[in-house]
Amino acid sequence: MPYVNIKITREGGPEGKGPSAEEKTRLIAGVTELLQTVLDKDPATIFVVIDEVALENWGIGGLSVPEYRAQQ
Amino acid sequence: MPYVNIKITREGGPEGKGPSAEEKTRLIAGVTELLQTVLDKDPATIFVVIDEVALENWGIGGLSVPEYRAQQ
Amino acid sequence: MPYVNIKITREGGPEGKGPSAEEKTRLIAGVTELLQTVLDKDPATIFVVIDEVALENWGIGGLSVPEYRAQQ
Amino acid sequence: MPYVNIKITREGGPEGKGPSAEEKTRLIAGVTELLQTVLDKDPATIFVVIDEVALENWGIGGLSVPEYRAQQ
Amino acid sequence: MPYVNIKITREGGPEGKGPSAEEKTRLIAGVTELLQTVLDKDPATIFVVIDEVALENWGIGGLSVPEYRAQQ
Amino acid sequence: MPYVNIKITREGGPEGKGPSAEEKTRLIAGVTELLQTVLDKDPATIFVVIDEVALENWGIGGLSVPEYRAQQ
């Protein structure tokens, strides 16, 4: 009965506001299949929660993502 | 000094957009009382954080919640 | 399909090393019943995960728990 | 390669709707520097994610934050 | 720069004490590839953290996992 | 009333098994002071939880940390 939490920046997708419903569906299906394949987990008891995080709320290398990308 | 995180789908409630403030208050009070009763924790140092998650961001059984319910 | 994560310090219980299995069971049952009562959630799709955290890994008021209690 | 998650109530800041981008930047820079100083971690592999939580979704002392403050 | 947290019960694997290092490696590789394929994320900035949870610390259906399985 | 969760690999420190109690104390004090300075939060209601993660349970770039370092 795994629980998987995927945190991504809210960007990209059809409107630039985050992944489409179809992309989220592929993430959910893919992670579930992976846990079934590798660890023989029952898909019925696999939860996946996707959190979309605003770019300015995500930091890497001591910078927010907008700053970080501006420096690349 | 427990920390409790409750993740639920954003639905139901008075406007269909998630639990009402009163329902959240009951969750907070109930969890706090439970920890006090079972583990003798001091309520003053119990934090509860409720996360409401969009239906399409929650997966079960390899499907997003909207797909999952459509199949039931 | 809620997911609840309860973080507590690893202490107390029958051997001073954290809650007993019976206490954990009461936490799980209590939180599940609360979500059923307040939000009408189906218990079959409620997950509860309890994390026990070493005292020195928990901070409050700028101090680790052992320091914090020594000052009270 | 640390991962730091900072959860705060969504309030304050320039419009009363949460910290400004500049305040978030200071949090990200400060936490990153702290991990570099204390544990000699490489900033390039330090992630910081800030979650802003609605006041009514945060509980302390068995009350939601709005109730809690009204009682102080 | 996604962050993925996989929580599983600590069981199975070569010694019955949880997944082998090789299984964990497959989980990490699989999730990373999935995020690269679906969302075009750069693998260099994908973190995966696997948490193994004691059976008695995991609840489903209002029961701890050992109780739950005994009832099946 | 912020909640901060710091996840680090379990390594280094006086015995190579993770940070010392003194280093954890410095992390707790530093994060608390940062939130007080930047957001004017009351230290009395700041929680910090440090999670130490086994190297083989942490992935980056599609590899577990031991594999990743072997390739550098």
Account of the 3D structure:
The structure is a homohexamer of 72-residue chains. The first copy, chain A, has 72 residues and is of the alpha+beta class. Chain A has a single domain, classed as 2-Layer Sandwich (Macrophage Migration Inhibitory Factor). The first copy, chain A, contains two helices and four strands. In chain A, the strands form two sheets. In chain A, strands 1-2 form a two-stranded parallel sheet. In chain A, strands 3-4 form a two-stranded antiparallel ribbon. The mean pLDDT of chain A is 96. The A-E interface holds A 1-9, 12, 19, 23, 26-27, 30-31, 34-35, 37-41, 45, 58, 60, 65 and E 1-9, 12, 19, 23, 26-27, 30-31, 34-35, 37-41, 45, 58, 60, 65.
Describe the structure in brief:
Chains A, B, C, D, E, F: Belongs to the 4-oxalocrotonate tautomerase family. The first copy, chain A, is of the alpha+beta class and 72 residues long. Chain A contains two helices and four strands, in the order E-H-E-E-E-H.
